[in-house]
Amino acid sequence: MAYNILYLMALLFLFPFEYLKRPKELRRRWLSERSGFLSLPIHPFTHPPIHCIWIHAVSVGEAIAAVPLIKKIKERHPAAEIVVSTVTDTGQKVAKERLGDAARIIYVPFDLPFAIKNALRRIKPSLFIIMETELWPNAIRILGRSGVPVLLMNGRISGRSFGGYKKLRFFIKDVMKNVSIFCMQNELYAERIKELGAEPDKIKAIGNFKFDTRPSSTVPEWTRIFRRQKTEDRRQAREKEFVIIAGSTHRTEEELIIDAYIKLRADFPQINLIIAPRHPERFREVEELIGKKGIKYLKRSDVTGHGSRVTGVVILLDVIGELSSVYGACDVAIMGGSFIEHGGQNPLEPAYWGKAIVCGPHMENFPFIDDFYRGGGALKVDSDTLYESLKSLLTSPEKISSMGKIAKGLYGKNSGATDRAMEIIGKYL
Known about the structure:
The protein is an alpha/beta fold and about 425 residues long. It folds into two domains: about 20-210 and about 415-425, 3-Deoxy-D-manno-octulosonic-acid transferase, N-terminal domain (Rossmann fold, 3-Layer(aba) Sandwich); about 220-415, Rossmann fold (3-Layer(aba) Sandwich), CATH 3.40.50. It has helices at about 1-20, 25-35, 60-75, 90-100, 115-125, 135-145, 160-165, 170-175, 185-195, 255-265, 285-290, 325, 350, 370-375, 385-395, 395-415, 415-425, and strands spanning about 50-55, 80-85, 105, 125-130, 150-155, 180-185, 205, 245-250, 270-275, 295-300, 315, 330-335, 355-360, 380. Helix 9 (about 185-195) links the parallel strand 6 and strand 7 (about 205).
């Protein structure tokens, strides 16, 4: 009861902002689905499918991680209906782009009894799968008590979240009794969920789904504007047209990276930089920052076709869902969210393409990055050493190539988590 009151108070406070920030044509669907009144029937057939699986992926990262699992489910259970719920608009967009007709995409209902029950009556799921660690008490309790197995997949608990959950352990423990199994990314997260009150025999460490993700497409055609004559000759390195990507950056990081880029241009005049802000609402803000620095730039949204060849330019990646494929066009990838206390963004996307990875000091969201550091597939720097570290890399193309090969090898070595998850899911279907 106390949770419902607190949740409702927070909802009433945030509702005007959340409602009005969406385009007018989207508001009615957002409100309807978040209230559990789904605008379209989930079961359009005369007879419902054999199974309906509801997967909750809060935002972009969780939606991307769910893609290989959903594809595996459809391979093994073609008649199964998949419903994917998200909280964010960007999560919706990415899920639709990557899954197409393989799943029905909805906004997750508010975590209030009436909304969850409304959705449950329409979806009638055989399974409810939570991606990573979205512990919504009412959803878990109502679905669990209705006889729907609740599975937590690709579970993770960051150090910051762990500290917060520990303060609510008495409450969280009761919620977790309704979860059938916790499939965690690694032993550390498994130990943390156990300490929060999950029953030990319900916990399994099966690996990280993100090692099984693949870009949604090949390297985009527009990146041909960077095509250049490659050389491994160190004497010619100063003239090589390097491409650096700063992926999923946050506020203050763009200025740090742009300043390092401006210094690098003195040594490598033809170097290009792609900046991809994490949040779409900051595209304009970052564009203004680039403009104030007085450097030549283009917006990805303005680049059509192959375009003219460019050198010494900044590209603002002001589109959604393309970053994972654009990594294939770079030489070095800088991970956003790692130069502030955010915990970093996903280094596996550039690792898939075999790219050298540069991280700031804060990569707590991805504990496996230590394996990359030890193996030589990634480099850990800080704000003060970013420029010198990048300069050192760019004067040694063989080092860039070696780091990329190591990163790709580690990526391949750790794959297979979705297959292990399917073995578990199969027991509930």
